[in-house]
Amino acid sequence: LRPGRGMDEALYQELEEVLIVADVGAEATRRLLEGIRRETKKQGMTDAHDILPLLRREVSEILRPYEAPLSIKGAGDGPFVVMVIGVNGVGKTTTIGKLAYRFTSQGKKVVVGAADTFRAAAIEQLEIWSDRAGAHFVKHGSGADPSAVAFDAVKAAQAKQYDLVFIDTAGRLHTKENLMEELKRIKRIVGRELPHAPHEILLVLDATTGQNAIVQARTFHQALGVTGIALAKLDGTAKGGIIVAIAQELGIPLRLVGVGEGIEDLQDFFAEVFVDALFS
Amino acid sequence: TLTERLDQVFKKLKGRGKLTEKDIKDALREVRLALLEADVNYTVVKDFIARAEEKAAGQEVTKSLTPAQLVIKIVHQELITLMGGGENNSLKLSGPSPIPIMLVGLQGSGKTTTAGKLAGYLRDNKKRRPYLVPADPYRPAAIEQLKKLGESLGIDCYTPASGEDPLQTVAKVREQAREKDFDTLIFDTAGRLHIDEELMEELRAIKELMNPQEILLVADAMTGQDAVNVAKGFNDAVGITGIILTKLDGDARGGAALSIKAVTQRPIKFVGIGEKLDAWEVFHPDRMASRILG
Ligand SMILES: Nc1nc2c(ncn2[C@@H]2O[C@H](COP(=O)(O)OP(=O)(O)OP(=O)(O)O)[C@@H](O)[C@H]2O)c(=O)[nH]1
Ligand SMILES: Nc1nc2c(ncn2[C@@H]2O[C@H](COP(=O)(O)OP(=O)(O)OP(=O)(O)O)[C@@H](O)[C@H]2O)c(=O)[nH]1
Ligand SMILES: [Mg+2]
Ligand SMILES: [Mg+2]
After folding, report:
1. Rounded to an integer, what distance in angstroms lies between the CA atom of residue A108 and that of residue A162?
2. In a 3-state reduction of DSSP, which class is residue B265?
3. B277 lines ligand 2 (CB under 6 A)
4. Is there a contact between B222 and A210 if contact means CB atoms under 8 Å apart?
5. How far is CA B227 from CA A249, B48, B258, B259, in A?
6. Is residue B153 within 8 Å of B131, Cβ to Cβ?
């Protein structure tokens, strides 16, 4: 985009490509560029050099209202309960390890509940993370009732006066009705034990996912009410542009980004940082 | 659906002789949109539409197909060809025993689960004696995960020593396989980013030592535009011989399949259609083409 270049169709083509290749999606891209066309006309802009800052601001303004780090203040004098959900392999278990560590490092007392009783070695995997984080680990045997584990994790936190509970659930495709029902049951049983719990229902999305992420967010939101999104694997080459459409359609708070496989590779979501990376 | 959208495009086209250039451009605009919504990569779509335009030029609108149906037929056929229609996508199992197969891919794509499924398939459908080999020393309980899958299948799984690295594993397993008479070795490697220089170097070193007959890229069907980068990264580093697409039991359209195929020019051999170890099928290009078009 050299200065002095005019605003021609080729320019809009290039912008379209940048947005689509970032997984913003064809429809959201179309709306964004339409908005840019109106704005440049309105402001009488003619230099192509002005268009990128305009577009970056446009995307940032869509995301910024939903920039909302995870705060654990809303639980009164009981533990703050976070239920972590999402489709298979997105990074739920690893994100819990990172989150548990973040809070134990702040001197908080954390319980981690192994409610993925289905997948091979899921409990073992989470236990290693929980130990690394210095959290108290609650598990049953493999094949046990996930709701029972979640219940016990909350009870343990109440008994020991712990600050936080993280409940890990098995990955599941949003298309599987019975598995979505299982999630609703976990939520119900936890809520029965501790009113207003789970205080956070955190949906983990994989930044490499394409347009299906919108369907995932929509479906999990309809089923359970998602209160926060964590976008994992942003350390790859995928830009995670699907959160633009998700923000526009569902308005779910954007909490966290995962930027690696280490226990400290977790950052708060910042619209400016995200937009910088999107257009880099 | 695409058919409905194309019917809209062609509403005004009643019984004309040929598809005009304008008709084709209008129709392919809808097809382009459908492919982008299906996560096919931007550049792959561009090339595809150009090719489809050539194929559609001057086609006769006949009584047996509406213009919309004709365009779909052309596009569908082109997609099937690109997805590997007519190509031999079987596993390469000829050669000196034991035959090593290496599974590679991004984090969480389904490699470990796929290793289990592949082992079961080789034993039950191909009457082979597979050996599961965990070569992921990084992910917590990764070895445990593969061992458990082996147990549920009744298939032997190698146990690395604590701290053993993948190269040592390759060397040790080679000896063991000969003694224990396994004819196929399935190496499950750690998930890694194609831009992680160190880990891609490890993968090259593993390949060098192992000399695998098959290097299968395990890719998630819901992958978006990034699929081309991943495919190129792994293919440039170690050379992919085949692709396995996982999580097709979801509702992702799976356009990544076309992107990966376009970049690697390698066959998609199998698909994962569930979490259970029998949720495994040979890949069907025609079914995939329909799914992507939506
Ligand atoms: N590069 C990178 N890898 C990640 C990140 N988060 C998780 N991973 C990796 O992704 C893979 C899957 O992570 P898990 O935590 O097991 O994912 P999960 O959602 O719990 O998976 P299931 O329980 O099987 O559904 C592991 O190899 C993790 O190390 C991230 O932010 N960056
Ligand atoms: N629904 C569905 N889930 C699958 C399929 N294949 C794998 N999974 C699930 O995807 C998640 C990740 O699978 P893994 O086998 O751990 O993936 P991986 O590639 O080995 O992960 P890393 O070793 O961390 O890179 C698990 O929850 C699996 O059960 C499939 O075809 N369908
Ligand atoms: Mg997990
Ligand atoms: Mg694995």
Report:
1. 8
2. coil
3. no
4. yes
5. 25, 16, 9, 6
6. no
Please give the pLDDT value at position B139.
98
Residue B163 neighbours by CB distance under 10 Å: 7
Q: Which residue has the tokens 């929509």?
A: A218
- How many angstroms separate the alpha carbon of residue A89 from the centre of ligand 2? 6
Helix (H/G/I), strand (E/B), else coil: B293: helix
Q: What is the dihedral of CA B221, B127, B180, B146, to 10 degrees?
A: 20
User: Chain B neighbours among A 214-243 (CB < 8 Å)?
Assistant: 215, 233, 235-239, 242
Is the CB of B193 inside a 6 Å radius of any atom of ligand 2? no
Considering only the beta carbons, identify the residue of A27, A210, A237 that sits closest to B39: A210
Angle between helices A242-250 and A212-224 (to 10 degrees): 30
With CA atoms as reference, the chain A residue closest to B255 would be A210
How far is the centre of ligand 1, averaged over its atoms, from the C-alpha of A84 (Å)? 13
Residue A209: list chain B partners with CB under 8 A: 220, 222-224
Q: What is the mean pLDDT of chain B?
A: 94
For ligand 2, whether the C-beta of B273 sits within 6 Å is yes
- As given in the structure block, the two tokens for residue B272 are 């994962």
CB contact under 8 A, B108 and A174: no
What residues line ligand 1, using a CB cutoff of 6 Å?
A 86, 88-94, 116, 119, 122, 170-171, 232-233, 235, 258-261, 265; B 107-108, 139, 191, 193
Residues of chain A with pLDDT under 70: 1-4
Are B139 and B251 in contact by the 8 Å Cβ rule? The answer is no
Q: How far is B10 from chain A (nearest CA, A)?
A: 22
pLDDT level of residue B232 (50, 70, 90 thresholds): very high
Beta carbons of B131 and B98 less than 8 angstroms apart: yes
For residue A21, what pLDDT is reported? 98
More confident of the two residues A151 and B174: A151
Tens of pLDDT, residues A184-219: 999 999 999 999 999 999 999 999 999 999 999 999
Query: What distance separates the 2 farthest-apart alpha carbons in chain B?
Result: 73
Inter-CA distances, B55 with A271, B7, B50, B291, Å: 44, 20, 9, 21
- The residue that leads in pLDDT, B195 or A77, is B195
For B123-157, how does the pLDDT look when each residue is reduced to its tens digit (9 = 90+)? 999 999 999 999 999 999 999 999 999 999 999 99
Write down the pLDDT at residue B179. Answer: 87
Confidence at residue B64, expressed as pLDDT on a 0 to 100 scale: 79
